[in-house]
Amino acid sequence: MIALEAKNIHFTYEKKEILTNANIRISEGECVAVTGPSGSGKSTLCYILSGIIPRSIDGMLKGSVKLFGDEIKTLSLAETVKRVGIVFQNPDAQLFSPTVEDEIAFGPENLCVPRQEIESRIVKALGIVDMLEYRHFNPLHLSGGQKQLIAIAASLALEPKALIFDEALSQLDNNSTKLVKSVINKLKGRGIAILMVEHNRENLDIADRIYRLSNGILEEV
Ligand code: ADP
Ligand code: MG
After folding, report:
1. What is the mean pLDDT of the chain?
2. What was the pLDDT predicted at 13?
3. What separation in Å is there between the alpha carbon of 38 and the centre of ligand 2?
4. Does residue 39 line the site of ligand 1, with CB under 6 A?
5. What's the CA-to-centroid distance between 132 and ligand 2, angstroms?
6. Cα 29 from Cα 186, distance rounded (Å)
7. Centre of ligand 1 from the C-alpha of residue 4, in Å
8. Tell me, what's the pLDDT at 217?
9. What is the pLDDT of residue 165?
10. What pLDDT, on the 0 to 100 scale, is given for residue 110?
11. What's the pLDDT score for residue 113?
């Protein structure tokens, strides 16, 4: 099944056109990468595919964005975050709770998931990123790579069927990069659709297909 699909997307912030007739699709269990120069609109594309645009960021958006067959604009915020999650470049900007487990419980609590179910999601999400032993730690005391794993676990606690990584490897050292890449492969193996924005060619080895965005044009390469 096609997990994420954007068709004939035109997007403009104020007057600047960022995307011109962009098309992309990512199937379940597929890892698709997007590369392109800084400022080319890669994050903008991530925001469109996760509904942050137009929900939280203004601009003129035309075209169709579908999550698992449904137009994203017809989905509630709760339905949207159950279908697609996003992990950003800087884990410090995503973590704000006093403990790792609070961080992971935050999303499901907002969706009114029952306490017992949240408990099992904490264990499951931390298990996937192999960080169970850090459950009671303060995220501020973790390394950059460990913080990113917790940010991923926090996204996984909503059990999204698709996950977007917006340059999520770019601030990590080699060892943490390897760990996060292996988590991405694991998620792919579980049928989760992955979109990764990545500027480092060495990290494109885990992608099944690659698109390049430049001067507003998105092309599969
Ligand atoms: P990338 O992720 O490829 O570096 P972005 O999607 O962040 O690119 O940005 C694309 C272009 O849009 C850049 O020129 C940036 O300055 C501009 N831009 C990003 N966010 C906004 C915004 N909220 N309002 C106006 N312009 C923006
Ligand atoms: Mg960006």
Report:
1. 96
2. 96
3. 7
4. yes
5. 30
6. 10
7. 21
8. 97
9. 98
10. 94
11. 96
Does the beta carbon of 148 sit less than 6 angstroms from any atom of ligand 1? no
80-116 residues labelled b (16+ CB within 10 A) or e (exposed): bbbbbbbbbbbbeebbebeebbbbbbbbbeeeebeee
Q: Does ligand 1 come within 6 angstroms of the Cβ of 137? A: no
Residue type present at position 152: I
Q: Is 78 in the pocket of ligand 1 (CB under 6 A)?
A: no
Q: In a mutational test of the pocket of ligand 1, which residue from 19, 20, 44 has the highest number of ligand atoms less than 8 Å from its CB?
A: 44
Token pair 């035109």 in the structure block, residue: 10
Give residue 24's identity as a one-letter amino acid code. Answer: I
Q: Which long-range contacts (CB under 8 A, 24 or more apart) does 12-18 make?
A: 12/59, 12/60, 13/44, 13/58, 13/59, 14/59, 17/216, 18/44, 18/59, 18/216
- Report how far residue 66's alpha carbon sits from residue 49's, in angstroms, rounded to the nearest whole number: 8
Residue to probe by mutation, ligand 1, list 9, 10, 13, most atoms within 8 Å of CB:
13
**What distance in angstroms lies between residue 131's CA and the mean position of ligand 1's atoms?**
33
